[in-house]
Amino acid sequence: MFPPRVVTLLACFLVLSSPIAAAAEETPNHGLSMFGDLKYKSGFTHFEWTNPDAPKGGTMKLSALGTFDSLNPFLVKGATASGLGYLFQTLMARSEDEPFAQYGLVADGVTIAPDRTSVTYHLRPEATFSDGSPITPEDVVWSFETLTRPQMLLFHDYYADVVKGEKTGDHLVKFSFRDGRNRELPLIIGELPVLSKAYWTAHDFDKTTLEPPVGNGPYTIAAVDPGRSITYRRVPNWWGANLGVAKGRFNVDEIRYDYYRDTTVALEAFKAGAYDVRPENNSKAWATGYDGPALAAGLITKQDIPNALPQGMQGYVFNTRRQLFADPLVRRALGYAFDFEWTNKTLFYGLYTRSHSYWNNSELGSSGLPTGAELAFLEGYRGRIPDAVFTAEYAPPKTDGSGNLRDNLKQALDFLKQAGWSSKGKQLVNDKTGTPFEFEILESDISFERVTLPMIQNLQRLGITARLRTVDTSQYISRLNNFDFDMTTGQWPQSASPGNEQRDFWSSGAADRPGSRNLAGVKNPAIDALIEQLITVPDYEALKTTTHALDRILVNGYYVIPQWYRASSWIAYWNKFQRPTVAPTYYPTALDSWWVAPGKDSEIEAAKAKLPSAPK
């Protein structure tokens, strides 16, 4: 269960960390790969995880939480409607069964300069926007210049090493780099969404809007009920439909998102047949919440699909901009008040694994003690990074799961005393100021109350007053964007190839920039140096070494109280859908590869009407 965050079209970050064999050839490459050969050769007809013969048609209803007031997904302000990624295509498309590969989409080819200081994209002449106008180099350049302005937050940092974009031919766009060291730039430029210069020149790009924008993707917006629902309709003659990256995808004619006020209401609506597909993040709901007539009748399927994705970090994040949490010893102490083992056994049915790294479920996560090149780098920052980086393998506090964490709380008090806090009656107070230890935990999902309230009780036993405040989605996003919180649940997704996005997560420059994902307010010169080193590593072994070092400093900085992860995807759906026999490794649910079985729409609707719980 993850709290809502600012919507971004950069759902996964891909990096380039080794030379591309054909980079210097005059013939454009049909794709780019981080290591070795591309899995799919030039002229490939479809990805293996799609069905090129999938029938088109039918509907897919999905759910979203909260509300929305904007159809511009590129702005930080406003609550953006779900599904807007269907409208906007990028220069290249990811292959979900390769960790570091992209293939042509808006661009049909790409050429990298021999010295790697520029990349040129060759645009497809047939690519158009939804209003019928052609996609031109001017559109691509305008998109880049608009999205990388300082106020555009993630895009600005993500493309910080790109000097400029320019038209160099009728269908050519060249991007020049600061130097040839940032080896992921050719790939991440491929993730650039292409927007219509003509449309946005006539509209204020920096204002939220409920007017459906011109896009270039396989769907357009068919209907908007502000704050309640949004419906997308498939473009019948979409220019990209027969490309290898799209064949067998985008099969459903109509996709609709209905908004619900909380997860409990949304789950009951799913069971009643109000919508069709439900990815699940709540263990209690997954274990017991789907029981009912529809599941018993075999009308609903539940699937637990393993994946190979790095799981990133989810945890209670400290806002270190607050003086209360400036001391890492205090942050470490409070971690002893969260009893994961009891929580997992009692609340989660034992379905989760404790987070211990910012790259869980991945070989990029650190383990043991640093050696070799990793140790050599860390030695250069000894005294400016936690000593534990050199002496002990990080592990979060553990309990026996009984609910008795007396020993953990004793350890927490020892740390707090070392940090200048003492018990005075039933309160913990600061030795110098006499100020009681009090703070607020900000959330937007009421389902987190059952997890957080027991921790608050444990904190009370330490003499600490913590108050849980659950707010609506819009207020939550606004407060996080302005770092107006003491503690909240933060989540940092990671790819199998980290790079430029780490600037937005952890860099000193992002710490004071509203809207960044450096929620903790991390400012550390060693982390800044590691991020830049990560961006310029020459090979995968160097990538692993650098990521291990970064991970060690982060976990030993105690910026979060680690929560949990799972290495699979839970999904439930009404049985009107079919899906390919092969699931992509890194995105196993891949809803855009599903299709409605012929005749199943009406068959399922008829079956719903016969259920005892069918809505009146």
In short:
By secondary structure, this protein is an alpha+beta fold. The chain has 19 helices and 25 strands. Strand 7 (about 160-170) and strand 8 (about 170-175) form a beta hairpin.
What report would you give on this structure?
The protein is of the alpha+beta class and 616 residues long. Helices cover 25% and strands 20% of the residues. The chain is built from 19 helices and 25 strands.
Poorly predicted tracts of residues: 1-25
CATH fold-level name of the domain at 313-398 and 469-565: Dipeptide-binding Protein, domain 3
The CATH homologous superfamily of the domain at 313-398 and 469-565 is called Dipeptide-binding Protein, Domain 3
The CATH architecture classification of the domain at 313-398 and 469-565 is: Roll
**Strands of the biggest beta sheet: in what spatial order?**
19-18-20-14-21
- Report the helical percentage: 25-40%
Shape: globular
CATH C-level class of the domain at 313-398 and 469-565: Alpha Beta
- What structural class should be given to the helix and strand makeup? alpha+beta
- Terminal Cα span: 31 Å
Tally of DSSP helical segments: 19
Provide the residue-averaged pLDDT: 91
Strand content: 15-25%
Radius of gyration (CA) equals 25 Å
